[in-house]
Amino acid sequence: MKHSSTAIAQLLLEAGAVVLSPDRPFRFASGILSPIYCDNRLLLAQVSARRTITEAMCQQISDELLNTEVIAGTATAGVPWAAWVAHELSLPMAYVRSGAKKYGRGQQVEGGVQANQRVVVIEDLISTGGSSLDAVAGLRQINALVADCFAIFTYEMEESKQRFNAAGVRLMTLTNLSTLLDVAAQQNYIRAEHRSLISDWASDPAGWADRAGISAE
Ligand SMILES: O=P(O)(O)OC[C@H]1O[C@H](OP(=O)(O)OP(=O)(O)O)[C@H](O)[C@@H]1O
Ligand SMILES: O=C(O)c1cc(=O)[nH]c(=O)[nH]1
Q1: Separation of CA 157 and ligand 2 centre (Å)
Q2: Where is the Phosphoribosyltransferase domain (predicted)?
Q3: Measuring CA to CA, how many Å separate 113 from each of 108, 109, 122, 144, 145?
Q4: Which residue, judged by its Cα, is nearest atom 22 of ligand 1?
Q5: Based on the structure, what is the number of domains in the chain?
Q6: What is the pLDDT, as a whole number, of residue 113?
Q7: Domain residues for 43?
Q8: If you measure from the C-alpha of residue 116 to the centroid of ligand 1, how many angstroms do you get, rounded to a whole number?
Q9: Domain for residue 39, yes or no?
Q10: I need a labelling partner for 86 at 20 to 30 A (CA). Which of 113, 114, 141, 144 fits?
């Protein structure tokens, strides 16, 4: 069964993964302050939801990325998804640390990826794209071939689009912020004023805190 972007957004909402906190914004990995946070890690504990996500990822990879040789997860939140997808597709799995390990073999990429292997990077969520593209850079450094990244969710930030373009990486996602806001509004998960607030944030996430007069704690 094909899983639509709307169905996956609904799943995230039902799973309680989407949290709003306009008055005490979340700090993202990139430093950006945000009134919304999507905690896909909560899906790890929800067997039916994680099965649906894994199935949807496997389906798209089987349909569109026929030559994939390795599934690589970004540490930490991408790793379990990469493991489940690689297992289902009977492909080798690897993971990419945020930086090279400071002891042992000193590697950023773990799992024996070979030069010229075609690798798909799996991430749980894309904000600026910095984490996934660091993983791509780590893989390319050992001469792996990376042209595609796959994530559950993207905020559709202009910055991420530009960075993926510049890196020559195609980003595929199961769902995105605009779909999530549509579903959340239709089903009364969020009020109209919160939808407007999040849309305003999304129009310029990095400038939002200043615009809204919110100072970082
Ligand atoms: O697109 P970006 O701007 O890089 O932001 C998204 C990244 O941030 C989160 O990871 P986090 O740094 O919180 O670490 P974790 O995966 O260990 O939870 C998320 O899991 C992505 O990896
Ligand atoms: O950019 C991030 O750090 C980030 C945003 C978000 O909504 N969820 C998450 O896990 N990380």
Answers
A1: 12
A2: 56-154
A3: 11, 7, 15, 7, 10
A4: 131
A5: 1
A6: 98
A7: 5-211
A8: 27
A9: yes
A10: 141
